[in-house]
Amino acid sequence: MNQGTTKNFMFALSELSRWVVPLLIVWLLVSIGLGWVVKSILIILALIAIAPVVAFVGLRWWLKRNIIIDRCPVCSYEITGLNQTQFQCPSCGEPLKGAQDHFERLTPPGTIEVDAVEVSPKTFEGSR
Fold it and tell me: With DSSP H G I counted as helix, E B as strand and the rest as coil, what are the percentages for the chain, rounded to 5?
């Protein structure tokens, strides 16, 4: 028989399905209603517009609560750091920790802090 007609029929069917399937999808969406699609797109656009503003305000609030500007307790160099974080002084290299709006030295357990007092030789010799 004619094999060419079968090929033509298959080609015509594929061309028809190329148009029928999208039309069926559009008909299904129209019959269900497109209001939910429009509302969901508007909600997504609103979230995209509001999210950067909320992130910016939240970041500023967090930074106000956690940034410390103080002087190094060893060399008096002014440093900016975060609360409850450990770092080194950029001037003297002393390990520091931010705590309650000031910086504290990180010393090993058992270390005793002393303040050195300079004594002039004249004062020392004159006391005899």
Answer: 55, 15, 30
pTM over 0.85: no
Contacts of 107 (CB under 8 A, 6+ apart): 113
Give the residues across from 97 on adjacent strands: 86, 104
Sheet with 86-88: strands ordered across: 86-88, 95-99, 102-105
**How far, CA to CA in Å, does 86 sit from each of 7, 21, 47, 77?**
77, 63, 37, 16
Q: What does the alpha-carbon distance between residue 43 and residue 32 come to, in Å, rounded to a whole number?
A: 20
Q: Is there a contact between 104 and 96 (Cβ–Cβ < 8 Å)?
A: yes
Burial of 105 (0-12, 13-18, 19+ CB in 10 A): middle
pLDDT in tens, 93-116: 888 888 888 888 888 778 787 778
Residue type, 12: A
Residue 74 corresponds to which amino acid?
V
Residues 12, 5: Cα–Cα separation, whole Å: 10
